[in-house]
User: Fold this.
Amino acid sequence: MSGVSVRTLHHYDAIGLLKPAEVGTNGYRYYGRDELLRLQQILFYRELGFSLDEIRRVLDAPGFDRTAALRDHRRKLETDIRRRRCLLRTIDETLAALERDAPMEETAMYKGFDAERQAAYERELVDRQGPQMQDHIDQARAGRAGWRQADHDALQAEQAAIEAGMARALVDGLPADGPEATALMRRHHQWVARNWNREVPATAFAGLAAMYAADDRFQAHYDARRAGLAEYMTLAMTRFAARELG
Amino acid sequence: MSGVSVRTLHHYDAIGLLKPAEVGTNGYRYYGRDELLRLQQILFYRELGFSLDEIRRVLDAPGFDRTAALRDHRRKLETDIRRRRCLLRTIDETLAALERDAPMEETAMYKGFDAERQAAYERELVDRQGPQMQDHIDQARAGRAGWRQADHDALQAEQAAIEAGMARALVDGLPADGPEATALMRRHHQWVARNWNREVPATAFAGLAAMYAADDRFQAHYDARRAGLAEYMTLAMTRFAARELG
DNA sequence: TATCAGGCCCCCCGTGGCGTCAGGGTCAAC
DNA sequence: GTTGACCCTGACGCCACGGGGGGCCTGATA
Assistant:
């Protein structure tokens, strides 16, 4: 009924997590409604990554503070995620180093890597969002034929320059709606406007903040500078837009 | 020297992952420079979460494609992270449900939770970014005194409405620079402008996209709708800004 | 030279959450 | 009576070691 294996029930019985309502003279385990409900609770917490021991503590102590346990577990999950993001960054750096060590195929590998990830990303988008997304992607790809590696590099350089400027402004304690941040935002938007007809590929440039959300290269950046820069930049973007657009 | 335990070396010897350069007549294991280098490689991949078996495959096959192995592992890590983010969301929903079941302390719990996380977030910001960040935070807090729960709720409602509209537009296949998306963006920016003097708290509202990057409630949203909505929204924001600002 | 501290060795059990045999009993239907 | 689908217990295996027991080896000191 619940999809757990017999062996699992044996195990839960053995460790005293879920005992049958009744054991027949033949040794058979019989479970009732209460046990089913308890099993569902067990499966819920197990799904969340609780250990069986923790689950027993949560379910057996009547006045146990479940919200505290959940929040505790939440923190553990967050730590886990941070650690894994850090590992992702290390892998990316290692891959980059490996590519530098093989200069003959450098660009090829880089391009292949990018194209592969781009394709995977687009496939996932269509999978999740349905065929309408394919139209958007096709539109974007239609204008992308003229793009070269140099364009891509220039784009990345511009982004890096703006981010570096923002980081400096943050470190210097300049206000997010001060002239420096505003100038950087203007530069960003003007760059977008100038290159508009070139149909900037969406995944490579969907606004600085979007990169932050959609691309995991951002995650590395985010891990490096923590939340500060992202918050500062978007504050600046928002204030800029609010002032300029009324 | 490398910080691994003797027991670990025994284990690696037993499974054939790292054998000593020489074993003395007394049975002692002696390791040389080559073994140290190999051990460092092992520790590197172990840190990344490779299993010892995978590490052996990576190191022992001379022509083995390490970049492929790394990319493979990268995908596993990404899946892991996605799964954990999903669990985070479930925990949050469960916590919310538990709070609804205890209506007497509902607001208190909610507020306490929020204040606690806000404080932790601010502390981390200052920790990472240095004392300048404290100034920004103090500025923001200074204007935050007038905020009530109702303001907060209205803010969330407005955000939810805009996001829902965007989701509809995406599903309907409307272009990101079409009139509907533009209208939503205008509404968003106008709302910012109208509430400007109220000094919107940065962590609660640092622009839609920033929420996506900085707050993990976004991560739940992002997981739910996948990348599509985020990309679509930011595309719309960028195009709107580019058109309006020339 | 005896002793002593501090290594080293091998062997074996334990962890968690079960999967997977092996060997045997039970039940309902035909 | 047979068949096939269940059930039971008991035991071993996984993975990456930690930890303990009992004994050997080495270098320094009394």
